[in-house]
Amino acid sequence: MLDNDINHDFSDIFPKDIRDDFLFPLDTYRLFLEGLSINPSLFFDKWSDIDTQTIFDKYWKKNTKSDWKWSLTFPFFSLLENYVNYINHPTIIGFSGLPGSGKSTLGFWIDSVARELSLDIKVVSLDDFYLPGQEMDIAMKGNPWNVPRGFPGSHSLDLLHQSLDTFLKTGVLISPAFDKSLRNGKGDRSGWSEIRSKVLVLEGWFVGCEPVSDLSKIDNLAEDELDFSLRQSEKDYRILIQESLGQYSKIWKKIDKLWHLKSSQFNNTILWKSQQEDEMIRLKGSGLKGNYLTDFIRMIQTSIPQQSLSFINSDTTVEISQNRRIYKLKTKEYHF
Fold this sequence. Notes:
The chain is an alpha/beta fold. Helix content is 47%, strand content 16%.
């Protein structure tokens, strides 16, 4: 079959209103689905089914775009389903993206739909393994951003190791829950949960991020797309964070596949984090604001080299613009 025939047949599968909402070539989308071992025709039939729509429509935010549904959420969920159907052991899938990019929204949708469809898929946040309040205060003391949490070194790594190892052996994850609205936005643990599942999605803003080989070469240069230089205190503290990040690398080795929701520009997180905290204040009455929010955003921008966060070695990369529109797709081949 000629390429033109392939493109013609593929375009016939997806209605014009969906295709017109894509910011990338349709052929890119075809290759993306094929790389995920997804049959486009079966894929469209399933996710456009009226009965299926009544399930997942309840969990969308208002005005969710077609590209977010058809080129991120549905393909990712289909991949998770394939793991449930074809892999006979507990599996961890990683999902990485800057704060406010949409990870939590996606995770809520996946958890909710998986529950309604009785699928063994659960989502857990790296943030849930933050240190308890008092331990966190000690660990964060003296950081140059004066933030209460967030960067490598603020998690209970031994607990995370043990919990994930137990999950991989038994399919059971015993996890703390962390409420960021407690202690006037500093956050604290709010309980524990026991998760039984076959597929576990571990999401976090630096999941999959590796330490750089020579930090001095980066820190002597102005960071890309920043309008300020690193302070000496930030350069010094980044050395400690890089040492800590090396311990997280052992966590990443437990991940079977990694997805990266990549920002078009690193500074997009300024808007995204602000929106995220405004939403938390609206819903829970507490969150980061004022100088606390400004300092937290500065930490996101400078605590880990942007080169590390922007070029995570992911199996699948979905690139989004400042308004969270998807404009680029890339994946390695998946085989089940």
